[in-house]
Amino acid sequence: MDMTSPGRPADRFLASTHEVTNVARELVDYNLYREDAALVEAVRREGAAWADDALARFGALVGRAEYLELGALANRFPPELDSHDRFGNRVDLVRFHPAYHALMKTAIEHGLHSSPWTDPKPGAHVARAAHFYLHTQVEAGHGCPITMTFASLPSLRTTPALAGLWEPKVTARVYDPRNVPDAAKQGLTVGMAMTEKQGGSDVRANTTRAHPIGAEGPGEPYELVGHKFFVSAPMCDAFLVLAQAKAGLTCFLLPRWRPDGTKNPLQLLRLKRKMGNVSNASSETELRGALAWMLGEPGHGVRTIIEMVAMTRFDCMVGSSAGQRAAVAQALHHCSLRSAFGALLNRQPLMQNVLADLVLESEGALALTMRMARALDQRADPHEDLLARLCTPIGKYWICKRTPNHAYEAMECIGGSGVMEDSPMPRLFRESPVNAIWEGSGNVQCLDVLRAMRRTPAVVDAFFAELAPARGASARLDRWVVDLQRDLGDEDDAEYRARGVVDRMALALQAALLVRHAPAAVADAFCASRLDSAGPRNYGTLPSGADCAAIIARATPRA
Ligand SMILES: Cc1cc2nc3c(=O)[nH]c(=O)nc-3n(C[C@H](O)[C@H](O)[C@H](O)COP(=O)(O)OP(=O)(O)OC[C@H]3O[C@@H](n4cnc5c(N)ncnc54)[C@H](O)[C@@H]3O)c2cc1C
Q1: Tell me: the pLDDT tens digits for 107-160?
Q2: Residue 403, Cα to own-chain centre: how many angstroms?
Q3: 250 HSE (CA, 13 A, CB side)
Q4: Which atom of ligand 1 is nearest to the CA of 439?
Q5: How many Å lie between the centroid of ligand 1 and the Cα of residue 283?
Q6: For 321-358, how does the pLDDT look when each residue is reduced to its tens digit (9 = 90+)?
Q7: Pocket test for ligand 1, best of 201, 236, 280 (most atoms within 8 A of CB)
Q8: Model-level pTM?
Q9: 21 phi, psi to nearest 5 deg
Q10: Half-sphere exposure of 467 (CA within 13 A, CB side)
């Protein structure tokens, strides 16, 4: 009998049930930098054209399929805490999946934690922000210790004796995750511990106490007793910690190990079970006489640590802009391959409206973020310094707050498969609220904007000076700015109305940047859709006349 002849019964029963057609494929093996026109333009515009080649190499590296997989693995296998070893010794060891370590290694070896400090030059912050933006699209959780290490430098430098000891290893491009004393390592990471159970925004409520061991003052050793309710990346080699000293709330630098090689009792009680940011360990801790050196002036803890917090807030802008880019890239890619009712999704008018609107949001977020990166590069210029002071909280509030709905809409573009855990979308969605909440939640940012305007009125002049070059390019924007100018002077109920004011300031900044620098299709649609008073709107409600096809084409990555 001829077993290969067609039509035998087994063939019929084993016949494939269907052909898989009309589905997308993974968005992998593409250059995250080169395929992002808005990013390439922003890097050049804001002063880091010299980094173009390096960013292109980095974009190719992190866009490889096997590299993107690291992001999924680091989140599928979350960190675990071993408080003690099997013999009963306290070890406070957090174990991570190798994928997490691989991401940390790349980030540190590329200087994402330190390049503007080790190689300060025009565009250094812009180049570093662009690298961080690309790497965050692969995975956001590891960005927490990278950001904190990066951000710790300005605070460390308030006390030269400590900076001299710590800065070389904190900025070194060496990742050493071992749970051993800092003396045994060539590269160190730094975290921060401010939040306590009774207060996170209002750290003045901190009850952790600092007791001097001998002499008192900056650089001197103390013992800290108390607790910290959120300590992320607890495997860091040192932490900036707030505690009450005689003079009031003060900042301290607390190492994980004492110089004598014994464990410093910053004890990890448990790891938080988080809805997002899963690859990053966040712990609850107790400080049982932990050694720490005073950083900055006694009683000026907030002033000292705010140097660090300003940088972490900036990185929240970068991170949420990256989240938006990652989400819209997935949506654009999917809709360029999937058809429904006889046409590709990205050719259908209503889907074009949604996709283009998501792109506009992401372009506005990126433009503002990279503009602030330049302000950080040029802080010696008073205008840039004032801008950084005012517009970091504006951008942190606005961009982070816009991200969750953006992630959800991008997920919906993909349909049911976008909800599945083997798609990147659930991870992007669960990550999306985090930046808005930590490092000063939304209201706290808006109140900080008010504080800046009241204490340093020159920030308001700097803000309008920044908008001035855009005057005349869009009648809508001109009207928006005039109205804003009038309303900013109104102090009645200022705190109550703060969100509304900051929303308008953020949109003015974004629109001004886009009308000056983005293609007309992007700038026109942004102004037409965002600068009106029609009230709440969903994505996909761009007014008629928007050149959606051009907006979509510019942003769609070619894998
Ligand atoms: C994943 C994750 C990791 C974290 N890691 C760290 C870490 O490593 N180190 C660390 O120190 N902290 C960390 N935090 C804590 C975080 O910074 C705090 O949760 C945050 O600052 C808010 O503090 P809270 O939770 O005590 O909320 P609260 O301070 O109680 O605030 C609750 C709400 O009230 C609002 N609010 C506060 N004051 C006002 C006001 N005057 N007017 C109007 N509204 C107001 C806030 O905006 C917020 O929406 C982490 C948090 C998360 C989610």
Answers
A1: 999 999 999 999 999 999 999 999 999 999 999 999 999 999 999 999 999 999
A2: 11
A3: 30
A4: 17
A5: 15
A6: 999 999 999 999 999 999 999 999 999 999 999 999 99
A7: 201
A8: 0.97
A9: -130, 165
A10: 23
